[in-house]
Design a protein that fits this description.
Blueprint lengths: L1 E5 L3 H7 L1 H9 L3 E6 L14 E4 L9 H18 L3 E5 L1 H13 L4 E5 L3 H6 L2 H14 L4 E4 L2 H9 L8 E3 L26 E5 L8 H14 L4 E5 L12 H10 L3 E2 L7 H6 L2 E4 L8 H8 L4 E4 L14 E4 L4 H13 L2 H18 L2 H28 L1
Parallel strand pairs: 1-2, 1-4, 2-3, 4-5, 5-6, 6-7, 8-9, 8-11, 9-10, 11-12, 12-13
Amino acid sequence: MKIIISLNTAWNLLNFRAGLIRALVRQGHEVVAIAPADNYAPALATLGCRFVPIAMDQWGTHPGQDLLLLWRYWRCLRREQPGLYLGYTVKPNVYGSLAAHCLGIPVINNIAGLGSVFIRNGWMARLVRSMYKVSLRKSASVFFQNQDDQKLFIANGLVLSDATQVLPGSGIDLDRFRLAAMSASGASGDKFRFLLVARLLWDKGLAEYLEAAKLIRQRWPKVECCLLGFVDTQNPSGISKTQLDAWVAQGHVTYLGVSSDVRPNIAEADCIVLPSYREGTPRSLLEAAAMGRPIITTEAVGCRDVVEDGVTGYLCRVRDGVDLAAKMERMLALTDAQRALMGARGRAKMERQFDERIVIDKYLQTIETISRQRSVKNGCTQGK
């Protein structure tokens, strides 16, 4: 069948859904990707799908712009006439799903974390919840990336329990993210590098990371505390370039810029840190663990699912830079062999629980079920 998959950026499609798109194409489906155009859009053709751009103000709240987006989705879906719509991220999940429901197109949603609006729990969170409630009620299946988000949506009546399933995040390509040997850190933290890989948002725990970096470097002045990720100034939770420059000027953190391939950066790091306030299942931690790097992250929803405390890394308290620094010091106090063992255990955990093939197989099974149900329904209709 023709399947439409829609996200808020082409970059997101290329980096997080490439394996699924390739698998759908191998199954004989025609895949059409819908997202705002960016520099990564041309590369989608290498996955075997066709790209259709759509204008989207992903962080805007203007009702007129959102109604316009709903109309754009309706027009596109009516023209393409797909047999299935796959939605990810807030606006494709809400407005793309509503348009699909209006046209009688089955929908599979993926709730990949609830974002900053749910963390703050203000009027915006209430608005987003109400939008989800309307758009998800008729979906054939709604995937969540952790049980906490699934339970929250069910408890608030945003989705029917029977329609929900839990996936291990977006999964990780274990052939692409391979185990990488650890380098010797030397005495007194020589050459030791902590690395935070994320969009540069306050909700990723950047303030706590900076606080911890200051504390760590007072005792371990040769330790590097690095940041890798793009400055998302359009996001309400994004830090400014001026703020980032000020942090770098203080000398406590090093900014490595943006990379289209994070593997060399992870390989050069000794420990990956993500003090986020809430996640679906953080992709950066899956990538780090797959490459055999120990992890320090928070006890927050989504983050705690990736790490076994004291086994594959350490968990710290949310919004607590001092506790984060304590866990970083604990990591520094380990021997190279102990950190390597943590990393190896993390890789084994990825192989058991987070292999991308688990996610892809679940999608293929769900799509097959929906296709079968539609065939039965169409047969009954024709019989009448």
